[in-house]
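Supplementary Text 2. Reproducibility record for the structural model of the 305-residue chain.

All settings were left at their defaults, and a single model was retained for analysis rather than an ensemble. We include the record here because the model underlies the residue-level annotations in Supplementary Table 4.
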Amino acid sequence: MNTKTFTYLQANPQHISSEQQDELNLILEKYPFFQSARALQLKGYKNSNNFLYNDALKMTAAYTTDRNILFDYITSDHFNQNEISEIIQQHDASVDEIEVVSENITEEISVEIDNQIKKELQKAEAILNPDLFERKTELVKEVVEEISEIKETVSETEIEINQPLEFKKEDAHSFSEWLKLTSASAIIREDEKEISSVKIAANDKKEVKIDLIDKFIQEKPKLFSSALSSELKEKKVENKNLAAPYTQANDSLMTETLAKVYLQQKNYKKAIQAYKILILKNPEKSGFFADQIRAIKKLTNTDKP
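Retained model, structure tokens:
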């Protein structure tokens, strides 16, 4: 790739081809701190919805001294906008080139009437055909089997496990959390014997909320009743303790993007916990979050009766 091509792609990143994407990858292997090339690489992966986008974003963060600049770049309008102006111009040009040709249709009227009569005769013959009234048992059986297989199968695309992550301006905490998760070698589990009494009290309060949410998911997946809201408020008052500020601080940072981050990392337990917290924060979207929880449980075969 020469300087002229590279400069052109900087001004028109929507024109990055697959061959040029490969050339950018080779450049970055030789010059890993070449920030302009990394920006073009990310834009190219974003344009093609490439599954390598998340890995490239993680690598770019590793070679970037100021990650705030990187976050501002991937959440900017220029990075996320749909490049459609050129397509619109092409359509305008094609419309101008269309020639309107008038045709004499008087000769076609009689042909059209004859065709219509033939169609009506075919319909009459079809009605008199007794074979049409026989039950197609084999076809019905195949359709029923296909429907049952579809219902039993929960694909990973439903919960967007392998899709490029979309970060917004308000998702700064989720972006930082994602970077921490991708840089960690393993998920460290806390030893139950070392949990402090303050954290136990906070967990007791969360368990009350989670039990109510589980009941809601099983019995009323599409409704978030007012009775549940009032019951949560009563529990919140009864279980008020000194640990509340700590739990509220963590829950307040929970976003849909962070829940998707946990899904990307296949940390299904945390993803389910995240959606349960989002149900409390956004009861108007409780039906959608409940569907996500059920999809994750089916995927991991942890759905309890």
